[in-house]
Amino acid sequence: MGHTTTDGPRIAGLLLAAGGGRRLGGRPKALLEHRGRPLVEHAVAVLRAGGCEVVHVVLGAAAGAVRERASLPGCVLVDNPDWEEGMGSSLRAGLASLAAAGGPDPDAALVSLVDQPGIGADAVRRVAAAYRDRGALAAAAYDGRRGHPVLLGADRWADVGASAEGDRGARAYLREHEASIVLVECGDVAEAYDIDTAEDLAHLE
């Protein structure tokens, strides 16, 4: 019998959770409470429920405290010492971690942000379903505007990582390859707000 074949592509979750919450008085976003749990736990659960068996979590601000206080069993935790440079460095660290991981290679990464708790498993599932091959490029859209999560086929990781700078993450790469992106409307099942300011904390439960 030997190895088992899975029924579909292997899509890994890549959670960017390194932000320092500068406009929140320096509270790391990963540890903000939502429904009685740190936001990072909630975000990992969403990726898992959406079909990502493997989840890599990029930590930065207060990484030690996040490791201590958040329960993240089965996740690969990636420390990004350069997290203050912005989201680009976290995306690079996460994609490098996925590429280096042992075991069967993922066919794609589904990138999500820790501070968007309004985006649940339905949106993750929808965007994951847009996978066609290892060159896949897809993103959730909210009333036609591109947002997260973003699906990056494994063949694109090196180029995305090379172009990820500052706080733009994959934005420059996605703009260049706009014509190839499959937009998956998720506005009916998710809300794409960020938790950036004290006012935004009202979204947390």
Distance from N terminus to C terminus (CA atoms, Å) equals 48 Å
| Number of separate helices | 6
Strand order of the largest sheet: 5-4-1-6-8-7-9
Overall shape: it is: globular
Output mean pLDDT. Answer: 92
Helix content: 25-40%
Can you walk me through this structure?
The protein is α/β, with parallel strands linked by helices and 205 residues long. The protein is 26% helix and 22% strand. It has helices at 39-49, 63-69, 87-100, 121-128, 157-163, 171-176; strands at 11-17, 33-34, 37-38, 55-59, 76-79, 108-113, 137-142, 145-153, 182-185. The strands form two sheets. A seven-stranded mixed beta sheet has the order 5-4-1-6-8-7-9, sandwiched between helices. Helix 3 packs antiparallel against helix 5. The longest helix is centred in the middle third of the chain and has 14 residues, at 87-100. The relative contact order is 0.19.
Brief sketch in words of this structure:
The chain has 205 residues and is α/β, with parallel strands linked by helices. It has helices at 39-49, 63-69, 87-100, 121-128, 157-163, 171-176, and strands spanning 11-17, 33-34, 37-38, 55-59, 76-79, 108-113, 137-142, 145-153, 182-185. Mean pLDDT is 92; it is low at 1-5.
